[in-house]
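Q: Given only this backbone (345 positions), what sequence would you predict?
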């Protein structure tokens, strides 16, 4: 007989991608056809959340209620949750994602979930700890990176020898979302040979990311008007980064998509794991760009990829159109020329 699922679940981890993976694993092992509803702790829990949590659905559709950044919920929300979790709908399965940074190997919990000034944690948390309705992880470790690399290479049918594994393990980020972007770059770089080489560790080097970031920043400040010159420059940069691979456009698309996703995350106050001096630069650019501009940049990347895969454009045409499009989408608003008069303006 299958073990009944927990009525609710806590996930304590600063890595949003690992949280998502864990929720998917739990959901896959319990029923199917889940509706997914996402809420954000900093926005509070609206009536819609409480209705989904406690009311039955006549159609009987099971629903996942995922509360991201639950550590940002206010104390009164936790008090209300503590009472409401005793009368959850049988169709609702709430997940509370505590995504704060860890300190000295331990998570930073909100006050209602820990012993604080002589007050014990809320019963809903104590019950979760006692009964195993909780999953905790500080994030990826070096051992995790090694295991994921090996599993990824096997799944993609790629050759990954010990030297390449060691070289990549030393430079890949300890963040699952960032790691996914890096693996996309490696997959594109190895698509012709099916072999991951130690030299490909250069693709993960921060220098290439900073170079592309500098290009995006140049475009936003209005220095990207020479699209043809920009294409030539960035083809050379990517050729060096990809170690002489003939087709470089997909490499550009992967790196550009990662940069724009980072800017989008920063705009939405999502955690981004980067060295402070790099993060500060990206933060300044993200503040200058609108959400619509970043979204348009991502659309242009998809259009370029579709154009190449469909055969409508070759690599060079797609790259040239893409960079010109990015210059228009991300660049500063055009200045209207003022009429000249006889005197000084």
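A: Predicted residues:
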């Amino acid at each position: 007989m299958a073990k009944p699922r927990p009525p609710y679940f806590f996930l304590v981890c600063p890595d949003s991608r690992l949280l998502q993976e864990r929720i998917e694993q739990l959901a896959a092992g319990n029923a199917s056809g889940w509706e997914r509803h996402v809420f954000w702790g900093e926005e509070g829990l609206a009536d819609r959340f409480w209705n989904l949590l406690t009311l039955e659905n006549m159609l009987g559709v099971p629903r996942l209620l995922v509360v991201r950044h639950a550590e940002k919920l206010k104390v009164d929300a936790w008090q209300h949750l503590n009472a409401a979790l005793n009368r959850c709908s049988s169709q609702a399965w709430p997940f509370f994602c505590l995504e704060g940074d860890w300190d000295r190997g331990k998570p930073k919990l909100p006050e209602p979930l820990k012993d604080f000034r002589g007050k014990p944690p809320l019963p809903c948390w104590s019950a979760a700890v006692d009964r195993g309705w909780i999953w905790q992880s500080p994030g990826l470790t070096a051992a995790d990176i090694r295991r994921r690399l090996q599993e990824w290479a096997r799944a993609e049918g790629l050759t990954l020898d010990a030297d390449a594994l060691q070289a990549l393990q030393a430079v890949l980020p300890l963040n699952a979302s960032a790691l996914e972007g890096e693996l996309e770059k490696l997959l594109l770089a190895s698509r012709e040979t099916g072999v991951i080489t130690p030299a490909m560790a250069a693709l993960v080097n921060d220098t290439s990311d900073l170079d592309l970031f500098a290009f995006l920043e140049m475009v936003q400040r209005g220095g990207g008007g020479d699209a043809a010159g920009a294409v030539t420059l960035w083809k050379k940069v990517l050729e060096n980064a990809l170690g002489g691979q003939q087709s470089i456009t997909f490499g550009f698309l992967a790196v550009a998509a990662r940069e724009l996703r980072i800017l989008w995350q920063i705009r939405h106050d999502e955690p981004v794991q980067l060295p402070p001096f790099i993060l500060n630069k990206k933060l300044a650019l993200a503040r200058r760009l609108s959400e619509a501009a970043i979204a348009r940049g991502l659309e242009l990347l998809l259009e370029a990829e579709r154009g190449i895969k469909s055969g409508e454009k070759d690599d060079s045409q797609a790259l040239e159109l893409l960079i010109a499009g990015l210059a228009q989408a991300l660049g500063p608003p055009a200045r209207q020329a003022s009429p000249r008069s006889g005197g000084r303006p």
